[in-house]
């Protein structure tokens, strides 16, 4: 596999390799990651209207700034296991800058992401195996730029808004939107399973969801347009984006941590200061002995006393780069000194 390489030229290629990696059909070591993106991924947004004549309106500019932020955030999640883009170096931000090309008599926006996709792979080298690394990167590309993923997000919003809308006319405007095919539904079902199992993929999905809501805001003033081949009118975009709750502020921070300190002054809750070995960030997480098992609480105590690395599953909220309301949901294994020595 290493000598021949993996060539990803389409969304179909990316999905096929992702499913083979998830089910174990193919195995990869770090040295085997000879992966090339050719002609994919890319993003095409088409806008038709009075203001759209080979130009970018302020609203559309905000959409592409949101896309840039989503790219930075997804890279930070992939490499550092944190959505905080302050972890990115100046060089990384420069390498990940998108370029928007405007074509056509109306406004046809194109973003070529294949070179940036390879930057994701270069930057993700860490404690993940080759399979784990490529799974996250391919999932990120599909969630951000895959036709079926974007269509699924818009379909979800259509269903939610159809229940919220008061007039039949508005409901009818959304009903006429193109529905997902059986193959697209199957692909999103597979992706949802991966989102549930993999915290990094979950965080990237939340980022992609909010990015698409921001892209819709840029489409509100159009007569008609397309996002990655999904056609919709400006009125449909307006209806879809209303009351959309942002999802990317809710994050999962599963990973390897050191326990820096414990505040046990509360009766049932412990405030535990932890340090992420991937992001280098420290924050306070709540451990509730009424929801964690006795074995889990004992592991936390041993990890603190013996200064061991421990795997934790943490749910939290992120606000302007700060981790808030973190809660330890589950406790994994404690790493013994010889395990760390072998890694080195």
Computed structural class: alpha+beta
Fraction of residues in helix: 40-55%
Low-confidence residue ranges: none
Largest sheet: 5 strands, antiparallel
User: What would you report as the Rg, rounded to the nearest angstrom?
Assistant: 22 Å
The pLDDT mean sits at: 89
Net shape: globular
Provide the spatial order of strands within the biggest beta sheet.
4-5-3-6-7
- Distinct helical segment count: 12
Task: State the end-to-end CA separation.
Answer: 27 Å
Question: What kind of assembly state do the chains in view correspond to?
Answer: single chain
- Strand composition percent: 15-25%
Number of domains: 2
Say how many strands there are.
13
SSE run: EHEEHHEEHHHHHHEEHEEEEHEEH
Structural commentary:
Keywords: Membrane, Transmembrane, Transmembrane helix. The chain crosses the membrane at residues 133-150. A hairpin with a 2-residue loop joins strand 12 and strand 13. The protein is globular. A five-stranded antiparallel β-sheet has the order 4-5-3-6-7. The chain has a five-stranded mixed barrel with strand order 9-10-11-13-12. It has two domains: 6-248, no CATH class; 253-343, OB fold (Dihydrolipoamide Acetyltransferase, E2P) (Beta Barrel). 46% of the residues lie in helices and 24% in strands. It is an alpha+beta fold and 344 residues long. 36% of the residues are buried. The protein has helices at residues 11-22, 58-80, 90-95, 114-123, 130-145, 147-164, 168-175, 182-197, 199-219, 234-241, 294-305, 337-343, and strands at 6-8, 35-37, 42-48, 100-103, 107-112, 224-227, 230-233, 250-252, 255-263, 269-276, 282-288, 309-319, 322-335. The model has no long low-confidence stretch (mean pLDDT 89). Helix 2 (58-80) packs antiparallel against helix 5 and helix 5 packs across helix 6.
């Amino acid at each position: 596999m290493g000598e021949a390489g993996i060539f990803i030229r389409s969304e179909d290629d990316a999905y096929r390799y992702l499913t083979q990696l998830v089910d174990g059909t193919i195995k990869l070591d770090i040295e085997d990651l000879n992966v090339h993106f050719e002609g994919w991924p890319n993003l095409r947004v088409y806008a038709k209207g009075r203001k759209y004549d080979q130009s970018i309106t302020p609203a559309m500019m905000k959409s592409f700034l949101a896309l840039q932020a989503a790219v930075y955030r997804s890279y930070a999640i992939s490499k550092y296991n944190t959505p905080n883009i302050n972890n990115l170096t100046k060089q990384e931000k420069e390498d990940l800058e998108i370029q928007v090309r405007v074509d056509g008599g109306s406004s046809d926006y194109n973003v070529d992401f294949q070179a940036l996709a390879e930057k994701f792979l270069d930057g993700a080298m860490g404690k993940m195996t080759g399979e784990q690394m490529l799974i996250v990167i391919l999932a990120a590309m599909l969630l951000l730029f895959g036709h079926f993923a974007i269509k699924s997000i818009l379909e979800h919003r259509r269903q939610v808004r159809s229940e919220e809308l008061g007039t039949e006319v508005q409901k009818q405007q959304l009903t006429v939107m193109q529905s997902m095919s059986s193959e697209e539904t199957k692909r999103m079902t597979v992706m949802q399973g991966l989102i549930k199992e993999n915290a990094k993929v979950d965080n990237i999905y939340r980022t992609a969801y909010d990015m698409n809501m921001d892209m819709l805001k840029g489409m509100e003033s159009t007569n008609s347009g397309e996002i990655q081949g999904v056609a919709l009118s400006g009125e449909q975009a307006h209806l879809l984006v209303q009351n959309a709750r942002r999802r990317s502020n809710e994050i999962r921070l599963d990973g390897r941590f050191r326990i820096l300190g414990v505040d046990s002054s509360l009766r049932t809750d412990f405030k535990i200061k932890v340090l992420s070995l991937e992001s280098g960030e420290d924050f306070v997480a709540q451990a509730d002995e009424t929801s964690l098992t006795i074995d889990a609480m004992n592991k936390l105590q041993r990890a603190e006393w013996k200064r061991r690395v421990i795997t934790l599953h943490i749910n939290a909220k992120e606000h302007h780069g700060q981790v808030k309301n973190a809660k330890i949901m589950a406790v994994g294994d404690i790493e013994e000194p010889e395990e760390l020595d072998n890694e080195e």
